Amino acid sequence: MDTNNAASSPQSLNNFRILYLITQMVGVTIIILVSSWVGVHLGGVAWTSQPRVQFNWHPLLMSIGMIFLYGNSILVYRGFRYARKKPLKITHAVIHGLAFVFTVVALVAAFDSHNLAQPPIPNMYTLHSWIGMAAVVIFGLQYVFGFVSYLFPGLREPLRATYMPVHIFFGILGFVLAIAASCLGLLEKAIFSIDKYSSLPAQGVLVNMIGMLMIVYGGLVVFLVTETNYKRKPLPEDVMLLTHSASSQ
To answer: CA 67, CA 103: separation in Å to the nearest integer?
Structure first.
């Protein structure tokens, strides 16, 4: 099959739209369920005056930032395939920036809740925290290098083309690590806080469902961004801008 023809076929685009819509629905459902879990079972949210409750910002904001927004940032080029390249770059950077803000606040909430507890709770000793921090570091570096390479000041086109596969790989890697860290974090919180978790009470079912939906969301995002039939085809204005950029350099 000719990949270029497949990528532009109506059936392929229809399949993409359906899967893209399902992905968004799953992502929104995750945020709703995590919000319900935090509000109904974990006592809501607070800040430093209630360190134990302050922690609840962590799963909520991480679900929004490192899961939902991160996934949408990855998908923005394929989800808005008929938009011009420059606005898509800016949108990609803005969504990444929002995700980074949510992530920083979530990390502050987690560290504060541990450090202000009586007695203090150790930090960074679980597998969840190690994988999660690796995801955050990769995410942060991706943002910095991507911004410098593709927005400001911007590398020359041959260097941008060389770096692009690296940028894509580590972007997906960071997202997959975020999904893995989130599932481990859900398990960790469930074991520590749910009474008789082995008997699968309502809260246990809810936590397990959130984890399964995160895996589904992650799988859909990775599939949509790696499936060659769904790749965004360059618009005529993209080619014109690229040609002008190359000639000016």
So the answer is: 10
Span 10-29, pLDDT tens digits? 778 888 999 999 999 999 99
Using an 8 Å Cβ cutoff, are 68 and 30 in contact?
Answer: yes
For tokens 């459902």, what's the residue? 29
CB 20 within 8 A of CB 27: no
- The rounded distance, in Å, linking the Cα atoms of 210 and 64 is 13
pLDDT at 6 over 60: no
CA distance 75 to 73: 5
198 has a pLDDT exceeding 70: yes
The DSSP call for residue 64 is I
**CA-CA distance, 180 to 239, in Å (whole number)?**
38
8 A C-beta contact, residue 134 and residue 180: no
Provide the token pair at 186: 């859900």
pLDDT, tens digit, for every residue of 97-144?
999 999 999 999 999 999 999 999 999 999 999 999 999 999 999 999
In sequence order, which residues have a C-beta less than 8 Å from that of residue 114 and are 6 or more positions away? Answer: 51, 55, 120, 121, 122, 123
> What percentage of the chain exceeds 70 in pLDDT?
91
DSSP H/E element including 5: helix 3-8
What CA–CA distance (Å, rounded) separates 214 from 208?
10
* Amino acid (1-letter code) at residue 215: I
